Amino acid sequence: MRRPFFALVIVSLALTVAVPGCSQDNAPIAGPKQAKPQAGRQNADAEQGGTGTVKEYSGNAVAAGERVSVAFVSNNPFEFWAIARRGTERAAKEFNADVEFHMPPNGTPSEQRQIIEDLLVKGVKGIAISPNDAANQASFLNEVAGQVPLITQDSDLPEGSKRLCYIGTNNYEAGKAAGKLVKQALPNGGKVVIFVGKLDVQNAVERRQGVLDELAGHEEAEGPDLGKYRLLDTMTDDASQEKCKANVEDTLVKNAADVEGLCLVGLWAYNPPAMLAAAKGADLAGKVKLVGFDEDEETLQGIQDGQIVGTVVQQPFEFGYQAVRLLAALARGDRSVVPLGGIMFIDHRVITPDNVEAFTAELRKLKGS
Predict the structure, then answer these.
(1) Among the four 183, 248, 299, 318, which has the fewest Cβ within 10 Å?
(2) Entry pTM
């Protein structure tokens, strides 16, 4: 498999962040991380110091002091996005904006399209979206980018798209962090099964590849053999927690003879709680190794109870905050806010039994802010 496409570029921005901090695992929730240069995705004129697709939007900017209307569209209705909504609300107050926040109830591309078409009719001046099916949505979203400033968050569009900026986690590196947790759980090797909603979403592709590469010890690993580890399967569930639970139950039955040498990895927020529920139902909680993504309360409790090895968390508050900050500026004609290369990475963190209580307290405070 080809290395996931994304450009890692050096950017230097003066950012107004909602919660200060640094990138240590036990540190407060951090602000945007500026990425190091690596090979990968390139925007059209990045080498000339431009931002590639900024020129694609040709609409009229609003007056500098005028209140602007922008929109944020998630890829599903899960709790993860409720935290992002808090970030959009904070930014709306600080940057004189009205924000329409939408979570498609079934998490389908058709719902996202209808939401965006309605937003354009309403006259919003900028849209941030987490594409559900990036490859098949690219043509439509490129058309949208010709009408209003468009940025992606959490999951990106394919190379050559007309979006202005991607805001979110470096999903490949976050996947590698999850792979490290697998190695800690099974230091002598073992079997691995990956669970995720869909594999036509770019963040899922990149996270999965990061896990595989970390376990194999080299890039572009494909499996099933990954050094001391063996990838048994990657199971999708169409963003259904119940389907994920059923997939895990089937996996546990098939591997009942060696469950202690098995590690299950969930790449989306609802996957770890579904994995834990299935393990509890089979009386295997604490025996089968579980590694997760995101900060669902059940996942964090599972870590505290010793039933989940750890989870790789993102910062959805910052996704929302930075998306509205950029869109408000772009709507007023200020293109200087777009980072060189069109990518703004936000730090991920690794939560384990050592720091889960402190992180949970931070998260509850953030949700109540």
Answers:
(1) 183
(2) 0.75
